[in-house]
Amino acid sequence: MPTAPAFDPPWTVDRALALFQAPLNDLLFWSHGVHRRHFDPNEVQLSTLLSVKTGGCPEDCHYCPQSARHATAIEAGPLLPVDRVVDAARRAQAAGATRFCMGAAFRGPKDRDLDHILEYIRAVKALGLETCATLGLLTDEQAEKLARAGLDFYNHNLDTSRDYYAEIVTTRNYEDRLSTLRRVRQAGMHVCCGGILGMGERVEDRAALLVELAQMEPQPESVPLNALVPVPGTPLADCDPVPPLEFVRTVAVARILMPAAHVRLSAGRSRMSDELQALCFFAGANSIFYGEELLTTPNNDMEADRGLFRALGIRAEMRPEVRETHAPGD
Ligand code: SAM
Ligand code: DTB
Ligand code: SF4
């Protein structure tokens, strides 16, 4: 077997591509080794999503069923009342999730909407859950307000490479996304940032996306890897699914480039077999979206996920402060 290449930064697209092109067994051996050095390989973190404001979005993201510019079956709704959000968070916590992620179909929040969202954050945080929100582009002041309300993570995906971005979204650019990510960091929140595979991109675009993420200082704490959920009415409805082993390779390269990040199997998991998910966990994935719905599309059945975890000997990760008060095996 060839000896492992050096895994230290700075990462370049060529170096990342060389990993993508390595024999699969070598790549998995390397990525699993990195994974074991940074994490318990038998623990997976569980996040639950809720769409707190659905549809009617002015942006034109070609993958998204919530854009008002695409003729999909999604109807626009208002921001949910706080008690509905708190009920959903309680159910997620009772089912075993440690993080609750609130998503809104905004280009960015209006200040009036933000005040309402700050109430969700305070209430969900008070339950003892980690909080995450994904609300689109932020100003400095909005990022600071979110952080002060107790928001732990902000999800804001780069989605694809800088070069391919304009093929996927025309109503904002890569730099707009990077500016918001800098504001999130500046305000002291953790960054959740990843992308979507299966939008017609090349392997070079996947490598460039991962290098873009890996070059952030500090690197994102959380990296969601979505497989496109093709929704009728969106411009990407007819894209071919990502070849499963290409998805595994992307997980493995993400793990090597961002050794301390939680790499999340995100949208598209319901089309993955148990065996493919098992291979992704071996490659270095250690987080999933848990709950029967993503934002507007179905996710895996929770009982099936618990069954898969039992079969693989995987435990749900506890929050660090909870773990300290439990002996192993509790
Ligand atoms: N509007 C905000 C924004 O775009 O940042 C937050 C919500 S948006 C729905 C959050 C993320 O969901 C997008 O960045 C994209 O990565 C993901 N997403 C949306 N539609 C998807 C689809 N059909 N398949 C996979 N991922 C999708
Ligand atoms: C992420 O990377 N994926 C999630 C979450 N962050 C917000 C969203 C997936 C959405 C899939 C399509 C839908 O359900 O509308
Ligand atoms: Fe709007 Fe976000 Fe969907 Fe783009 S991904 S259309 S910004 S909800």
Ligands in the structure?
S-adenosylmethionine, 6-(5-methyl-2-OXO-imidazolidin-4-yl)-hexanoic acid, iron/sulfur cluster
Largest sheet: 10 strands, parallel
Q: Count the helices. How many?
A: 12
What do the pLDDT scores average to? 96
Topology:
Layout: H1 13-20, H2 24-38, E1 43-53, H3 82-95, E2 99-104, H4 111-126, E3 130-134, H5 140-149, E4 153-155, H6 165-168, H7 174-186, E5 190-192, E6 195-197, H8 203-214, E7 222-227, H9 244-257, E8 262-265, H10 274-283, E9 287-289, H11 302-312, E10 315-316, H12 320-323
Bound molecules: S-adenosylmethionine, 6-(5-methyl-2-OXO-imidazolidin-4-yl)-hexanoic acid and iron/sulfur cluster.
Written account of the structure:
There is one protein chain. The chain is of the alpha/beta class and 330 residues long. It has one domain (43-314): Aldolase class I (TIM Barrel), CATH 3.20.20.70. It contains twelve helices and ten strands. The protein has helices spanning 13-20, 24-38, 82-95, 111-126, 140-149, 165-168, 174-186, 203-214, 244-257, 274-283, 302-312, 320-323; strands at residues 43-53, 99-104, 130-134, 153-155, 190-192, 195-197, 222-227, 262-265, 287-289, 315-316. Strands 1, 2, 3, 4, 5, 6, 7, 8, 9 and 10 form a ten-stranded parallel beta sheet that branches. Helix 4 runs parallel beside helix 5 (140-149) and helix 8 (203-214) runs parallel beside helix 9. The longest helix is centred in the middle third of the chain and has 16 residues, at 111-126. It is globular and about 55 Å long. The relative contact order is 0.17. Bound molecules: S-adenosylmethionine, 6-(5-methyl-2-OXO-imidazolidin-4-yl)-hexanoic acid and iron/sulfur cluster. Residues 63-64, 66, 103, 105-106, 134, 136, 156-157, 159, 196, 226, 228-229, 231, 267, 295 line the site of S-adenosylmethionine (SAM).
